[in-house]
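We emphasize that the prediction below concerns an isolated chain of 324 residues; any contacts that depend on oligomerization or on bound cofactors are therefore not represented. The input was used exactly as deposited, without trimming of termini.
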Amino acid sequence: MKQRYLAPILNQSGTGLPFAGGALHFAQCRLLGRAGPARVLSIAEARAQVPELLDMLQTPQQTIIELPDPWPVIMGIVNITPDSFHDGGRQATSAAAVAHGHKLAAEGAAILDVGGESTRPGADPVSLDEELHRVVPVIEALAADGLKVSVDTRKPEVMTAAVDAGAHMINDVTALTHSPDSVSCARDLAVPIVLMHSRGEPETMQTMTDYDDLILDILDDLSARVDACRAAGIPQEKILIDPGLGFAKTAAQSAELLRRTADFHALGLPVLIGASRKSFIGYLTDTPRSEDRLPGSLAAAMWAAQQGAAVIRVHDVPETVQVM
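Result of the prediction step, given as a token string:
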């Protein structure tokens, strides 16, 4: 487990070094660790004290499944579930989900994230057979039409069936911990994998929001999952990370994670941010209904982009594309 992390303080002015070979730059860094409070370092200080960590921040990141440049990439959400927190039941049939996927792609989504089991806090689990029944026909149809598809699942059997059906990517809210077979399955499938930070199960996760240090605890947890994947033979260039806004996080904690998006670049991997329509936006803006959270969602997406997020996962694709 890493003891220290170096995070860029990003700017759009072209000052300093280019971050990850892209358009954002940084002239200062934050050195994070448990030995004391974070310290702001100049480039010269970082080069003298932690040169390997500084090099990691400059290394170009993989664009993942031949996605367009420049980042951020917009990932459109295709939920085939009756109980997702915002769009549950709207794509209740395969035909409706496929049509929705095509609509999102036409509006500018570079990836379609297809999910058949809600993992929102409090959601009930879905059987393997039901999840397969929901996602496989949709993935087959979308992939056959040449669209890039991700499967949002925590079950290795669904990962395998989805990739066999044409999925290009796996998005696992448990960071490959739900099953003992998840890591080896992802390795054998050899597609990019999103490792998201969470704790517990959907039924229990919101009772598990105590952290010694919110950012460092999540960095340590994600770092351990990345190490486990690499040890199993998953190449680093196939790994993305997601701090997991709303998953075993209070609303205030989710807002803090969003604010400190750039700190997660300390792992040297592409960062995915999923803030769209989530309850922490309602907490910040006094909008209890998810239907009223579009402005806050767009603000969150723009902030994530300015903080170097590689992929932004959203319900509202055309609005987000216009903001970008």
